[in-house]
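Person: Show me a sequence?

Helper:
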Amino acid sequence: STQSTWGDSEEHWTRTSNMILFYLLLLALYSLCAEAQTVQELESMIVSVNQSLQNEISALRSTLNSTEEALLAANTRIDDTQVALNMLWVLIGATYVIFMQTGFAALEAGLAQCKHTANVLAQNFTVFAMGFVGFFVFGFPWAFGGFSASAFGLNEPIGENAIGKDEGVLLWTGGYLLSDAYNPSAMVFFLYMVAFMDTTATIPTGSMAERWNWWAFVAWGLYCGAWYYPVFAAWTWGGGWIAQLGNSSDLGFGFVDFAGSGIVHMTGGIAAFWGAWVLGPRRGKYTETGESVPFAPHSIPLVTIGTFILLFGWFGFNAASTFSAMDTRFAVVATNTAIAAAFGAAFSVFYIPLRSRGETRIDFCASMNACLNALVSITAPCAFVTPWASMIIGCVGAVLCLESAPLIEKKLRIDDPCGACSVHLVGGLWGVLALGLFADGTYGEGWNSTETELVAGCGVTGLFYAGKLGGRQLACQLLTLLILIFWDTVWSLGFFKLLDFVFKKFGSPHGIRVSPEYEDLGIDQSEMSLSAYVVDQPKEAPSLLHPADELDKRLDSSPGDFPAFPEREVEYPSQPPSPPPTAVFETV
């Protein structure tokens, strides 16, 4: 009975366990089915999310592409705007430099004698036209046919090398009559460069004033614009062989002249020196014993106004030579220019009395020339030197001007009515040397496209800041000065001597100089047929067409020897006018 009960119980547990296993199996199957359904839903969800993500990514890519295109367009507009602003910057600089012609005209006219004033003014006006024509036809292509500057949009040169190649170019070609330069960038660059050429052409009108034959002067203007200025400009600013002395001979950065102490002013000063030498001194300038006779300026107001205009124009002359309004170095350039001018003028105020040992309190005209010499001196190094160096450069330039002017006039017997040689020749020479001494290396990396190991990572550096690099830079400046003096002497002295020979050969016995009678009468009346100042003339004016000694006798004679001025009937008011207020009277 017990065994039967135990057997029934075992069978019961067997059936029960089987049932439990069966239900567990069903539960597992149910779970698997549910899980399968969930997986399908998840897969469906993943597919949906993936599709959404793909759509979002596509939309984002489209947005990014649109944004990139917009940014590229914006960058293009920004670049175009910068180029336009830089072109405007260069254009403004060109107008400043062209306006300096007014300063030259006023300065030279004021320093000249009254009877030559109209002639001096006419020369300063006409030299712009003549030089412009020569530069437009020949000079600009020869000087700058290989020049490019992306800052104002001149990305490609307008021409190519004509003589020489690579680092030895002597002359360029292309762009005659601006035919290959009919684009805004090239044309604004031409305008800027023609203004600089005009400065070179104008300088001899100061040293050769009061005795220069008009047609000889016209020939000079054309010659300077077509050949004399462009050749050396091609060698330097144009990227020719002198500019590449850094790459070819490891001489620093090659010749560096930021705004033209040598290329513009010294070139004009050398022509001024030899032109005055060929012409000879003005009549009465030297006594029989060789002593110099001073000719007083006829208008100090004109001299002063001319100096101020030149000072004003010099900020465009120097600062705009960055060629970019984005290059903030123009602020350094302008400030250094002002510092040199101010200290040069101030130093001359104290130096003149000391030099004369108290005999002269102040020579106002000499101080103005000292200021101009300081401006010429700072023109080459203005972008590369510190303010204290600008101060020294200006003061040294003033002293050189004050010391060289009497040397040129009394020792060399070069009659320079305006002091053009001491201002531009001497000042230009000092400015080129000063760069080789005082350049501090903070600006000008890669100047003249120099890529040597010596200049890697450096700006233009002078001797006082780096022994090896500065010494080589100074050596390059000195070498270029020798080349400049030799080349310009050959082509200026040769031109004036040849022209003088041609004029004497074909009808002008005095060569490129006016006749003594014309000089005594005044070139205004003899050549210009007009006078700068309108005055009442006597009914029968005496003839002055006679030698100077006879003229001196007549001027020393009694007033009765000259016809009297016609009497005029003057109506006087019945009552005198009331006096002005006391304050006004005291002010006057």
In short: The mean pLDDT is 87. The longest strand covers residues 160-163.
